[in-house]
Amino acid sequence: MVKHLVKPEMVPPENGGSNPAPPLQFIMRGTPEWIIREVPLHEAAEFVGKHHYSKVMPKLNKVVLGLFEKEAMVGVITFGWGVRPEDTIKKLFPSLLSKDYLEIGKLCLLDELPKNSESRFISAAMRLLKKMRPELKLVFTWADAIWGKPGYIYQAANFLFGGSIGSEAYRTKEGARLHPRQLHKYLMSVGEISKGSKGRYVTPAEVAKNPKLGVGNWAPKGTISGTRRPFPSDMDRLSMSHVRGLQFRYVYFLCSDKERDVLLAETTVHWHRDYPKADDCTWQLKTGSEKWHEWKPLENGARPFTSAFDTERNQCKQKNKRESNSKGRGKTTKQ
Questions:
Q1: Could you give the CA distance from residue 227 to residue 193 in angstroms, rounded to a whole number?
Q2: pLDDT at 311
Q3: Average pLDDT of the segment spanning 81-87
Q4: What's 213's DSSP letter?
Q5: Strand, coil or helix: 232
Q6: Burial letters 3-28, b for 16+ CB under 10 A, else e
């Protein structure tokens, strides 16, 4: 529960005239005193690019909120959807549609903020989101347990936990996390393939006999486009490893208690507050021709990944900037 007073405040125009769409903002009383208000996407992207381990912004953003201390931005949170939003929500709550929920896309705060700042920000942002989008039933999010993050900030903000699913990634020789969908861009960045090249499919046996055959030959079997998964010999040559981990589900209900009870009765997941801890984050590792084995990257203060592989450090293009500027800071997202 948030112990700090959170209230909406309508800010009058500086010139004393009428303002048809004054910005809705929340003032968070406490130490320090913060203000939350909607911000253009490009401003949030610039902040994330400077302060988050993963610089890439989500593509589907519906609400973008900034956290301010004395007019200086100290945090951002975005709400939108991931891939296939309708399928995502129906697997959890069969009666809901994509219009009934949003996902937390990116959360980023300055490291020097006080302890529990994240959960305090999230709790207040939920209240503002409920004012801005009263039709929403819930907010759903994932905690990246494969990064060693069990979701403490969501637990402190009173989210419900809904179990886990398996997750995977590749780890580059520099220790960066590489999503399988990023393989093509990564291979181009290290000179394995050239832009626009299709290559030919080579079998694992061929590459094992002659590793050089794997260079430039990343076409999946039976196709002329796309990128296949690395073979063991490819991973040895590129000093890559394959990592298996977990992702933890969390949900926060914005609807009435009655609606929440109906949704909890139909859900396909058991939501509860028996929260996971750091020890519940588990990993398996496979390097080259080795077999999968248990991996404990958090021992001795280490981390599973040193960074996230991002070739597109800022996906907020000029189009987004123009759209944000045309809307103005005083307008909220359409209902």
A1: 10
A2: 55
A3: 91
A4: G
A5: helix
A6: eeebeeeeeeeeeeeeeeebbbbbbb
- Give one DSSP letter per residue of 142-203, joined into a string: EE-GGGT---HHHHHTTPEEEEEEEEEEEE-TT-EEE-GGGHHHHHHHTTSS-TT-------
Nearest-CA neighbor of 100 among 67, 65, 140?
A: 140
At residue 31, the pLDDT reads: 66
* ∠ CA 21-25-27, rounded to 5°: 150
SS3 249: strand
pLDDT score, position 46:
92
Distance of CA 44 to the CA centre of its chain: 14
**Total-model pTM:** 0.82
Q: What pLDDT, in 10s, does the model give residues 281-310?
A: 999 999 988 999 999 988 767 789 988 887
pLDDT score of 20 more than 50: no
Q: How far is CA 229 from CA 7, 48, 154, 238, in A?
A: 51, 30, 34, 13
Better pLDDT: 137 or 57: 137
**Alpha-helical runs (H) found in the chain:** 41-51, 85-92, 117-132, 152-156, 183-189, 204-209, 232-238, 257-266, 318-327
Check whether 29 has a pLDDT greater than 80: no
Both tokens of residue 218? Answer: 């990343």
Q: In the prediction, which pLDDT does 333 show?
A: 31
Residues 6+ apart with CB under 8 A from 174: 306, 307
Please choose, from the candidates 116, 124, 133, the residue with its C-alpha nearest in 3D space to the C-alpha of residue 25: 124
Per-residue pLDDT tens over the stretch 115-147: 889 999 999 999 999 999 999 999 999 999 999
Determine which helix (DSSP H) or strand (DSSP E) holds 107, and give its type and residue range. strand 101-109
Closest CA to 62 of 32, 104, 23, 28: 104
CA atoms of 216 and 208, how far apart (whole Å) = 15
The CA dihedral of 39, 316, 103, 48, to the nearest 10 degrees, is: -70
Enumerate domains of the chain plus CATH numbers. 6-12+20-172+240-327 (3.40.630.30)
